[in-house]
């Protein structure tokens, strides 16, 4: 497995991953357009932050990607994925010297090796920690919008509200929703808040998003490294 920055020559491969994970996995309107994806690669190159757009390459095939950019937005201010990402265009909220980070998109195809997601996430958190040291920040927050795909089924069965559903935990104190649980397992941190109507393309999540606001990069890195080592 090779983790590296994206280049314009990777655009076709990136769009194939995008279609498989968002267009087919969620809804066609959840996909970034080809023009948007091109502009993202160009933006990271122009801002001299190519490591913000990472690819996972296995045996010469792109099997996943992760996009993360610096922003002045705070978790308290973040109300939706569209707000955080300038509707997926990034330029309006991208601030190279800002303290916080926002993970725009994290996509891995089903055929990818088991550790692909964890390796991409680990690399992104190492980059985040390096960036903190570069700019002399003592603390930051790395945010991302998670799905909660079990909500629609639970709501249909019990009429539970989105506000109550995202807080459900198992006996060990971990989130019950499969997606929220997976991110908790990878980061050792719990979701921060629900964003009502914050990710509207996702029907299974009721159009809502759940914001994670990671505060401890060392904990996140150690958790991910342990997951990888134990596989």
Description:
The model has no long low-confidence stretch (mean pLDDT 96). Helix content is 37%, strand content 19%. The radius of gyration is 17 Å and the shape is globular. The protein has a 7-stranded mixed β-sheet, sandwiched between helices. The protein has one domain (2-229): Gcn5-related N-acetyltransferase (GNAT) (Aminopeptidase). It contains 8 helices and 7 strands; from the N terminus they run βααββαβαβαααββα. The protein is α+β, with helices and mostly antiparallel strands.
Structural class determined from secondary elements: alpha+beta
* Low-confidence region ranges: none
Task: Give the percentage of residues in beta strands.
Answer: 15-25%
- Please give the count of helices: 8
**Helical percent range?**
25-40%
Q: Shape from CA axes?
A: globular
How do the strands of the widest beta sheet line up side by side? 1-2-3-4-5-7-6
Radius of gyration, in Å, reads: 17 Å
- By CATH, the superfamily comes out as Gcn5-related N-acetyltransferase (GNAT)
List the domain count as a whole number: 1
Record field, number of beta strands: 7
Task: Give the key terms.
Aminopeptidase; 231 residues; alpha+beta; globular; 8 helices; seven-stranded mixed beta sheet
Strand and helix layout:
Blueprint: E1 2-5, H1 11-23, H2 34-46, E2 53-58, E3 61-71, H3 81-85, E4 100-108, H4 116-135, E5 142-146, H5 151-158, H6 162-165, H7 178-187, E6 193-195, E7 209-214, H8 217-229
Parallel strand pairs: 4-5
Antiparallel strand pairs: 1-2, 2-3, 3-4, 5-7, 6-7
Helix pairs in contact: 4-8
């Amino acid at each position: 497995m090779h983790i590296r920055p994206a280049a314009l020559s990777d655009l076709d491969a990136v769009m194939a991953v995008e279609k498989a994970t968002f267009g087919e996995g969620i809804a066609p309107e959840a996909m970034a357009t080809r023009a948007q994806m091109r502009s993202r690669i160009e933006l990271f190159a122009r801002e001299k932050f190519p490591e913000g757009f990472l690819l996972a390459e296995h045996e010469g095939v792109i099997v996943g990607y992760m996009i993360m950019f610096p922003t002045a937005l705070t978790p308290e201010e973040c109300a939706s994925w569209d707000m955080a990402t300038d509707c997926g265009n990034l330029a309006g909220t991208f601030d190279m010297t800002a303290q916080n980070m926002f993970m725009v998109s994290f996509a891995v195809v089903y055929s990818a090796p088991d550790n692909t997601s964890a390796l991409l996430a680990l690399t992104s958190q190492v980059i985040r920690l390096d960036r903190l040291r570069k700019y002399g920040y003592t603390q930051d927050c790395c945010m991302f919008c998670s799905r909660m795909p079990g909500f629609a089924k639970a709501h249909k069965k019990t009429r539970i509200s989105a506000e109550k559903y995202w807080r459900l935990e198992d006996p060990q104190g971990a989130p019950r929703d499969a997606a929220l649980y997976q991110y908790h397992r990878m980061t050792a941190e719990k979701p921060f808040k629900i964003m009502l109507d914050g990710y509207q393309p996702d029907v299974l999540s009721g159009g809502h998003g759940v914001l994670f606001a990671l505060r401890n990069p060392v904990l996140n890195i150690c958790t991910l490294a342990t997951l990888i080592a134990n596989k």
